[in-house]
Specification:
Number of helices: 5
Strand content: 25-35%
Number of strands: 6
Structural class: alpha/beta
Distance between the termini: 41 Å
Helix content: 25-40%
Length: 129
C-alpha cells in the first residue's frame, strides 16, 4: 500500500431528493485517480434517477484532482445530452481552485448551497423526499 493510500480520505456519498425534480448527490473525501472510477459510477447511478436536475454537493470534498475534473466534465456532457441540468455546490477552495485554474469555470453552474440551487431552479413540483 502506498503512503498516499494510507492518508487518503475515503470517498463517501449520500443521495437525497429535495424535490421530485431534483436529485442531490453529496460527495465527501478526496477525488483522485484512485477514487474517480467510484465517483463516475455514483454519478451514473444518480443520472439513472431521471430527475430534471442533478445537484452535486462538493462542499465536503477535500481534494479534487484532474481525474475528478474529467468525471465532472463527462457528467456535465451527459446531462446536456440528456437535456437535464447539473449544478455544483462548491464552497471549498480545493474544488473551486481546481475548476478555476483549469479554465473549466464556464462549463459548470456553481452555487453556494442547496437552497441557492433551488432558488435558481425556481418553483418546481411539490417538495417531497
Amino acid at each position: 500500500m502506498s503512503r498516499h493510500a494510507e492518508w487518503a480520505v475515503p470517498l463517501q456519498f449520500s443521495v437525497c431528493r429535495p424535490r421530485r425534480d431534483v436529485t442531490m448527490l453529496m460527495v465527501a473525501g478526496d477525488i483522485d485517480v484512485a477514487t474517480a472510477p467510484r465517483f463516475r459510477a455514483e454519478l451514473s447511478c444518480a443520472h439513472l434517477r431521471r430527475a430534471a436536475t442533478l445537484v452535486l454537493d462538493l462542499s465536503p470534498v477535500t481534494f479534487l484532482a484532474a481525474a475528478g475534473l474529467s468525471v465532472l466534465v463527462e457528467a456535465q456532457t451527459e446531462a446536456t445530452r440528456a437535456r437535464r441540468r447539473m449544478m455544483l455546490i462548491t464552497t471549498v477552495r480545493p474544488v473551486d481552485r481546481a475548476i478555476d485554474v483549469t479554465g473549466l469555470a464556464d462549463r459548470f453552474q456553481r452555487v453556494a448551497s442547496l437552497d441557492a440551487a433551488l432558488v435558481v431552479l425556481g418553483p418546481g413540483y411539490d417538495e417531497t423526499a
